[in-house]
Amino acid sequence: MKQDFVTTNIEPPHGFMNLNIAELWHNRELLYFLCWRDIKVKYKQTALGFMWAIIVPLVNMVIFGTIFGRVGGLPTNGLNPYLSYLAVLVPWNYFATSLVMTSLSMVKDAPMLTKIYFPRLYSPLNPSFSNLVDLAIGFSILLVVTAINGIVPAATSLLLPLFVIWMMLVGVGIGSFLSALNVRYRDVSHMVPFLVQIWMYMTVLTSFSGLPERWGAWRFLYGINPMVGAVEGFRWALLNHHMVKEVGGQVVPVLPAHDLMMLMAAGLPAMIGMLALGLYYFKRTERIFADVV
Questions:
Q1: Deepest in the core among 53, 122, 218, 265, taking most CB within 10 A?
Q2: What local confidence, expressed as pLDDT, does residue 3 receive?
Q3: What's the pLDDT tens digit per position in 40-98?
Q4: Tens digit of pLDDT for each residue in 187-196?
Q5: Counting Cβ atoms within 10 Å, is residue 21 exposed (0-12), middle (13-18) or buried (19+)?
Q6: Cα atoms found within 13 Å of the Cα of residue 105, Cβ hemisphere only
Q7: What are phi and psi of 52, to 5 degrees?
Q8: Beta strands in the chain (DSSP E)
Q9: Stretch 233-246: mean pLDDT
């Protein structure tokens, strides 16, 4: 009896950046299962479980609010220093955790990578989606602290998803580059947490509005850091109706339209560049992952 066989040829990607969106969409259920796996494994065999998603932002809020807000006297946009720092630490913790996990993703998925074919890009995409659970928990804590301070979130809170997407794109761009690099050089796994720590102080330590107006060029350079626009925008969208500063003896709103547009104009090209560079390097090197990892 004659038996028919179906042959499937898997070829390496061609072109400048062959993302193959159709393939990613067709296999979208795999991304769901990868995210669900990471959500279940993250707090498995821990005594406190999801409580860690509450403890971490609260401890950071106390440390930053006390040291830099109360003792250091850094500007906190007319807000309670604990609330002001929590409003940027919640999105930053999401980004930092996603970036570290993304940089390790290809090595972590090595057993699957060397045995079956799947869209490789799902590995660096996965952490940005699975960590949305922690972001939601941290945001719930932020809403509680906001209510304790007698503040109702601004109507511009509807813009919050845009800043979350901004952080996801930055994380995927840099993370995909680092994950591909980590396949060849395991030094990346030691370097990333250190770099993330430095990046945090360059982003959340002081606000964009805390820089003097006369520092126009420096303010623009500071805004080139795409995460400044993301976390500042996140805080602005939630609390802008209570954010003020004193200029020339007058109280004015923090991050007026021109300041916000400056942040977006400075950070958007950097974000797009990081995303394009990361995806380009990832797609150029993915054909050797299974051989090297």
A1: 53
A2: 60
A3: 887 776 767 778 888 888 999 999 999 988 888 887 878 888 999 999 999 999 999 99
A4: 888 899 999 9
A5: exposed
A6: 31
A7: -65, -30
A8: 244-247, 250-253
A9: 81
Residue carrying structure tokens 């809020």: 61
Q: What are phi and psi of 256, to 5 degrees?
A: -65, 180
289 Cβ contact partners less than 8 Å away, ≥ 6 residues apart: 106, 113, 120, 180, 183
The helix (run of H) or strand (run of E) holding residue 27 is: none
Total number of residues shown for the chain: 293
Q: How many CB atoms lie within 10 A of CB 258?
A: 8
Locus of tokens 């799902």: 122
Question: First vs last Cα of the chain: how many Å apart?
Answer: 43
Among 256, 218, 215, CA closest to 236: 256
Q: Which amino acid is at 22?
A: A
Residue type, 59: V
CB neighbourhood size of 199 (10 A):
17
Of 203, 180, 198, 184, which Cα lies nearest the Cα of 270?
Answer: 203
Burial class of residue 247 (count of CB atoms within 10 Å of its CB; 0-12, 13-18, 19+): exposed
